[in-house]
Amino acid sequence: MRNLVTFGLCTITTIGFAACETTPEPEAELIEPPAIIETCYPISSLEKVIIPAVTKSGFSIVSIESPPEYYVDPDTGKTVTIQNPPIETKTPYTKIVTPEEIYYKTPEGERTTDICELNKAIPTAEPAQ
């Protein structure tokens, strides 16, 4: 019986290894990548357009009511009320209504954001030690 079990294991092992046999893969065709065509514009060929910010200027006036002052007249003994004018402050201000806008135009007069120099990495300086 022991021989029969050993024979069965050897047979199963042999069949198992035969099933794992690899077949060679067909050679893949080498496809050359297409040439890189830059579709961006060099910044030197563009015109920079600056639309200034629109601002609104004016004055902010703050008024604080002053409380009345009371005093007693020494001659008559009556209480006299003096109403003081309000305290006012006038502060100038400037408010941006529309922010500044900067864009670039191509020689054909179209707006563009596809600028070559803006898409490249900017090298950083090494820190001094």
Condensed summary:
The protein is α+β, with helices and mostly antiparallel strands. It is 17% helix and 33% strand. It has helices at 2-19, 116-119; strands at 47-51, 54-64, 69-72, 79-82, 87-98, 101-105, 111-112.
For the largest sheet, list the strands in their spatial order.
1-6-7
Quaternary state of this entry equals: single chain
Derived structural class: alpha+beta
Characterize the main sheet. Answer: 3 strands, antiparallel
Q: How much helical structure, as a percent, in the residues?
A: 10-25%
Strand segment count? 7
Query: What is the residue-mean pLDDT, rounded to a whole number?
Result: 77
Radius of gyration: 44 Å
N to C succession of SSEs:
HEEEEEEEH
Tell me what portion of residues adopts beta-strand conformation: 25-35%
The backbone outline, from C-alpha atoms, is: elongated
Sequence stretches where pLDDT stays below 50 over 5 or more residues: 121-125
Could you give the distance between the termini? 81 Å
- Number of helix segments? 2
List the helices and strands and how they pair.
Blueprint: H1 2-19, E1 47-51, E2 54-64, E3 69-72, E4 79-82, E5 87-98, E6 101-105, E7 111-112, H2 116-119
Antiparallel strand pairs: 1-6, 2-5, 3-4, 6-7
Please explain how this structure is put together.
Mean pLDDT is 77; it is low at 121-125. The protein is elongated and about 125 Å long. β3 (69-72) and β4 form a beta hairpin. It has a domain at 43-64 and 89-118. It has helices spanning 2-19, 116-119, and strands at 47-51, 54-64, 69-72, 79-82, 87-98, 101-105, 111-112. 0% of the residues are buried. Helix content is 17%, strand content 33%. The strands form 3 sheets. The chain has a 3-stranded antiparallel beta sheet, with no helix packed on it. The two termini are 81 Å apart. The longest helix has 18 residues, at 2-19. It has 129 residues and is of the alpha+beta class.
